[in-house]
User: Fold these one by one.
Assistant:
Number 1:
Amino acid sequence: MNIFRQFLPISQQLSKCLATVSSQQASAILQRYVCTRVILPVRTIATTSPRKDLMEFFDDKKNWGEQEVKHGRGWTRDDLRIKSNSDLHKLWFVLLKERNMLLTMEHECKEKMELFPSPERLDKVKESMENLEEVVRERNRAYYLLETGENGERPGRVRPNELGIRFFYRSFEHVIPKFANRKWNERHKFTFGGSAVWKFLRMYRERLYNEKRKLRNRERNEVVHLLRRFPNIDRETLAQRFPSVDVEKLYKLDKIRINQSAPKGS
């Protein structure tokens, strides 16, 4: 009750003062009254002073000309999953501002033919933004699956282009219907034909097949070399490292078993 009796005259005086002063003066008056009239622990709100100029696009001046700038690691998905939606929204703009600053500094260093300090910072910021976007997608999918039974993503389908190469096309809304949208129909053609296109497809598929075959042969030869050099190697780990190679089948080959040393006394 004593505290309320002390606050009553203060509130009457403040109501008269605050009607004629600005917000900053009002906060100063309120703090002075509370600190002098009532002995209570008071903690002021600390905020950073915004810089509303072009220097927002540049790094701190103490980092100019440095060979290396100290920085931390990027944001992982596990770190972002424990954050609230409001924190993720704020963090996105913080990372966006940091990315713009780093891109500006990188361009400035290239113009002056200087070394950009710690260029891995830009990679970490981009990786953090990708992880944040993926976490937001996870939450959106979970919400829409719970509410509507759908994932909430934009619908899409695999369509061929004019050269016959298939790609995943994501649909999006248009104001003009499809049959009346002349520009969209001219830009998006999902059909192909002609002898030249079919010849290109045959050569393209042959190239892809040869690349896969060569990669499979390289992995097989590498596994054979490892088994001949290290006969006691863990075959399960080797199978995980090279999933496209049948390690057990290669282990039974004669050219691998010949190189295994015979036990002593035989």
Number 2:
Amino acid sequence: MAQKINEAHEHIAKAEKYLKTSFMKWKPDYDSAASEYAKAAVAFKNAKQLEQAKEAYLQEAEAHSQHRSLFHAAKAFEQAGMMLKDMQRLPEAIQYIEKASVMYVENGTPDTAAMALDRAGKLIEPLDLAKAVNLYQQAAGVFENEERLRQAVELVGKASRLLVRQQKFDEAAVSLQKEKNMYKEIENYPTCFKKTIAQVLVHLHRGDYVAADRCVRESYSIPGFSGSEDCLAMEQLLQGYDEQDEEQVSRVCTSPLLRYMDNDYAKLAISLIVPGGGKKKKATAASGDSGAAPPEEEEDEYAGGLC
């Protein structure tokens, strides 16, 4: 370990020498200095000196920036972020990865920028859901600008699920609509059906029956939706919700169709509450059965006594 640390310091000394100017050397040799800082960073990393490795990567990034090697500067910033990640300093790590992503875009390599932001989102997700949403949305935006909707829509989907997990239903509704529009554009219609189910659940949790109903009606224009299993389930769910029929709502929400959706949406289905907590009235069926009539009357009298 001591040998690696000594080796790292030797590379740092060489890098500093390359950066010095003299009467015969007017310009610093940023390229050679960057190479030495990179070697120093690896040596520090191997010696488990993560703080020093991070600093060496930052010095490498600075040297590459001075040399206008944006791609390599971004890579060095990303590596500095990884050192911070290993030190459990995630918010700082994310800052450097975001900085790297900006440089990747400036360099003309947006794909690398989007993938870096996606990785950053995964890193911060266990710690800060709101920041993860922001990173996934940034990454989706980069892909969208490049007209790569298949990659963009996956990232919008990640953001939608995390918004639902945070119960930010207004934002989730907007995100799901964007997601659904993208799937329509790439003609992935079966996934549009699933997004309609997710939309209905989100709108009902927002207490907006009208918006939920509108989502289903708008989806009739999607090829194959009308008459599909997804469509029938949503029609039954909305009918049960509107009529305060807990039985019908529960039957739909616990069906395999909804139970096997992404976990965040399946939880929405299970936790859906019918306004008023009404149960389906069986008075009509009971009136045809003379044996069942007395208990019904007793129940009504008891209920009246409570009022």
Number 3:
Amino acid sequence: MEFVSEEGSGFPALSIGNVGQLAVDLLVSTTRAERIGYLDDPYILPCVGNDAYGLTPTGELTLPLEAYQSTAKSLIFVQQRSPVIKGRMVDFAKNIADFAAASGKKHVVVLSSLDFGRWQNIDMSSGLQIYYLSSTNADGTDDYCEKLGWKRLQEYDPAQRSWKYLSTLAEGKAVEDNIFPEDELEDEDYYPSLPFAALFSCLKAKGLKVTCLLCYCSEGDNISDAFHLAEAASKLSSLGPIGGHGGDGGRWLIPISWQSLYGPPPDMSMF
């Protein structure tokens, strides 16, 4: 993985998933972070688009994996806009982990959404719930995350076969090919197969502190979920009130790209 610098250098937190992407949009826009470069990795699919945050179109293009730095908040973000090539997620995660370690970063935060259909214990009394997974303790728990009112992802079990297999891959140890035929996969193998799990395992294997912030969502308009996940990330990073205009209670600055997030409004003449 190569980091191509524009102005300065650094390594960000990583966002994956629709809600994670939208949450990083909010964090970048509201903290007025500036793009400092992009990451070029052979395992991520190419994509290109117009400037996501500028108020006027200047012709500056956005790329699949970009780095933004908020000097005022001492934070760096990565915005991932395209998926990883099928079957190469662990390779991609290893590259991310190698680069993070080489850059001297100590704590990486992964933002991701999860399938609402997999939410086993639904307790709507407390509203939308944020789940976490941390490398602080062997069982994935973290006292600070618990203090913030979040629950550890119950499906994490370091002794379960797929989590152990993923950890073995992350550590670069030799493993048997096709150890888990597709027709033998069980429900408990689902979560270790997700991108956040590969990132968690590879970053942890490098000795970095990694915290995954996760929220369940359904297909469709996930803007409200993005506000919750961005709020969780700001709490974890001790950002406090970060100002801005519009959005959730006037705290968040909405990116200009969100104006066309779900396409133009329907043609009312057809009703």
